[in-house]
Design a protein that fits this description.
The chain is mostly helical. Helix 4 runs antiparallel to helix 12, helix 4 runs parallel beside helix 15 and helix 17 packs across helix 18.
């Protein structure tokens, strides 16, 4: 009953005209960024991070949540109409969604995606409301050893398990950890990796790194490489932007199954919503194969409904894990954790105690954002699709200007602009050679937590590092990590053997 009362108070705070305005602004920006090729919610949050320091924390995080959810809503538009997923989380939606568009059902495909994202996000928000306080209370049992185990779990899971190339994932992670340790050591007072430059004594700003890696690096990549790749042809939706009763009944079970698949991945550092969307698509494909008249490959509505619901349910649960545990499960969540710290806030049990108004207004804004996004995407999908017609030179020139102005406004130092360019070039090289960016961001965000927890644990045990594997919580986390690594290795070995058999079968069939 206390939870419902606190949620009601949160709605009272979120429904003020100022906060309601920021919800709408966040949803508009998130959808717009999600629709446009190459962009995503992580880039939008990174670009907005310097700008929002002038806002109250509640308004800023309400807008961030709208951007976070809106990016997934908008990303499906390009996947369906152009067969070009802007983010990895939308790849599974292209398989049947684009076939629906080619079959003249683009409007129905967009409606399926919008309702699926709404269903997944809304149900996940309900679960988060009741789960987050319990998780926050559970996290009071965490000490230095537990937080170190949690950070190590996030490092390994996001860098080596969910990437196609574990070596590249670990390299990206170590780049982030390397940037995180630059500056004056808080305990000894000794400068570390500063090159005797006073500009680096305070360390490298996370805002600068996120904007450089996610935004400026993408701009340089598009200017140098991606602009030579021709895009797909835009299919213009026609007909009714809603579903018939038969279509709704066909999609409903897939929405619910996708939501159920996506929610557990929101509290596990498994790389965001990419894995659950593929799992949801794979389940629907197996179920469809048992039907008398299989539809997959012809534009099956269930093949689009399930991934869309899975993606947004993962995002909703990720916000709960971020608020209750301070655990980012994706690059966007990591940037939002950095934003909390910029405001002097630390997600976890203390956040629920000291800033309960902010927490519950933010949780209430999730529900409002879902409704606003459904209104924006269901009848106006074609208007959003017109954003795809913006010429890339003007679009990315504007992004570059926002990057520079945002960083200079937060620090007022020319050095930070040079640092922005240098890190942006690193981001371009990583993008060009297919290095994942999320491990770098998560390494930089959680690196200081891991270092501090390791030191505190060792000091409390007089230098005995065995304390790191004592207690039930660290043991369970390490055991889960070993299980996840084992499952991942098994899956990759099976995939490698299958590919080898296919290569051997090709000459035999000729």
């Amino acid at each position: 009953m206390d939870t419902l009362q606190l949620l009601a108070e949160g709605f009272a705070g979120a429904l003020t005209w100022q906060n309601l305005l920021w919800v709408v602004v966040g949803c508009l920006l998130g959808t717009a960024v999600g629709v446009m090729p190459g962009l995503g919610s992580s880039m939008a949050v990174a670009l907005l991070l310097p700008v929002t320091f002038a806002l109250e924390p509640t308004a800023a995080f309400i807008m961030f949540s709208g951007v976070y959810f809106g990016g997934l809503f908008g990303d499906s538009t390009m996947s369906i109409l152009m067969n070009m997923p802007g983010q990895a989380s939308a790849i599974a939606s292209t398989f049947e969604g684009h076939k629906m568009a080619l079959d003249g059902r683009a409007a129905q495909a967009l409606a399926t995606a919008a309702i699926g994202a709404f269903t997944g996000g809304f149900i996940a928000s309900i679960v988060v409301v009741f789960m987050a306080p319990a998780l926050a209370e559970f996290s009071t049992q965490f000490g230095p050893a537990e937080f170190f185990a949690l950070a190590l779990f996030a490092f390994v899971a996001t860098s080596s398990v969910v990437t196609d190339h574990p070596t590249k994932g670990l390299a990206s992670l170590f780049i982030g950890l390397g940037i995180a340790v630059i500056g004056v050591d808080g305990i000894s007072g000794a400068p570390r990796f500063t090159l005797d430059s006073p500009n680096l004594f305070d360390g490298v700003s996370l805002v600068t790194v996120t904007v450089a890696i996610l935004a400026l690096g993408e701009v340089i990549y598009v200017a140098c490489l991606d602009r030579h790749i021709s895009g797909g042809k835009l299919i213009r939706p026609k007909g009714r932007p809603w579903l018939s009763g038969r279509e709704f009944r066909e999609a409903l079970p897939a929405w619910l199954r996708g939501t159920a698949i996506g929610m557990p991945f929101g509290v596990v550092p498994a790389g965001g919503s990419e894995i659950p969307t593929f799992l949801a698509y794979g389940l629907e494909k197996k179920l469809d194969a048992r039907r008398r008249n299989p539809q997959f490959g012809k534009g099956a509505i269930r093949g689009l409904a399930a991934p869309e619901a899975a993606g947004n349910s993962t995002t909703g649960m990720a916000m709960g894990a971020l608020l209750a545990l301070g655990l980012p499960v994706s690059a966007t969540a990591a940037i939002m954790l950095a934003a909390f710290r910029q405001y002097g806030l630390q997600p976890g049990p203390l956040l629920f105690e000291r800033s309960s108004e902010l927490v519950w207004a933010l949780l209430a804004s999730f529900f409002i954002a879902m409704v606003v996004l459904l209104i924006l995407n269901l009848p106006f999908a074609m208007l959003w699709a017109k954003l795809l017609l913006i010429p890339r030179p003007q679009l990315y020139a504007g992004i570059t200007m926002v990057c520079a102005l945002g960083i200079y406004a937060t620090s007022g130092k020319t050095f930070d602009l040079l640092l922005l360019l240098g890190v942006g070039l690193v981001g371009f090289v990583m993008r060009a050679f297919d290095y994942p960016l999320a491990p770098l961001i998560i390494g930089m965000v959680l690196g200081p937590l891991a270092e501090t927890s390791l030191r505190d644990a060792a000091l409390s045990a007089n230098g005995d590092f065995a304390v790191l594997v004592q207690g039930p919580i660290p043991i369970v986390l390490y055991a889960l990590l070993l299980i996840v690594i084992g499952i991942s290795l098994r899956g990759k070995l099976v995939e490698r053997r299958r590919a080898k058999r296919e290569r051997e079968a090709v000459p035999a069939g000729r």
